[in-house]
Amino acid sequence: MSKTVRRSITMTQEMHERLILLVSKRDRTTTEADLIREAIRRYLDEQEQIAGSRRHFTRTFQDRIDKLEMNIAFHLNVLLYLLTDDDPATRHLIENAIIAARRDGRTLLAQIKAVREMTVVDAAEREHSE
């Protein structure tokens, strides 16, 4: 049997009246103390769920950052290899890639943002359904 701890609380008259009303709607064996314990238990459980959600979000966010870093490093390495080639055709390809990136960059970023928002909504829906 676990050791119990006794605490004293102070509440407003209005809170006490609401508590009495709730007790009166329960079965005869339910006491004010039972409802207070139930409220504290629910609050503590909710706080644990919130903390778990934050940990999950932090892990997911860190995973996304790690993937982005790897992606950026890959592309930078490809560019470095391309830049080391003195072939005029290669330089022309690089110039065209830069022009295309500047021209289409905003469109591509908007598409990436739309996909991310869909992914966040999908993840939230999956988490809510579990």
Characterize the structure shown:
The longest helix has 52 residues, at 32-83. The mean pLDDT is 82. With 130 residues, the protein is mainly alpha-helical. The chain has helices spanning 13-24, 32-83, 88-129. It is built from 3 helices and no strands.
Round the Cα radius of gyration to an integer and report it: 29 Å
Strand content: under 5%
Query: How are helices and strands ordered from N to C?
Result: HHH
Shape: rod-shaped
Structural class: mainly alpha
Q: Please give the alpha-carbon distance between the first and last residues.
A: 33 Å
Describe the biggest sheet? Answer: none
**Can you count the helices?**
3
Proportion of helical residues: over 70%
Key words describing this protein structure:
single chain, 130 residues, mainly alpha
Q: Strands, helices and their partners?
A:
Elements (H helix, E strand, L loop, with lengths): L12 H12 L7 H52 L4 H42 L1
Quick recap of the structure?
The chain is an all-alpha fold.
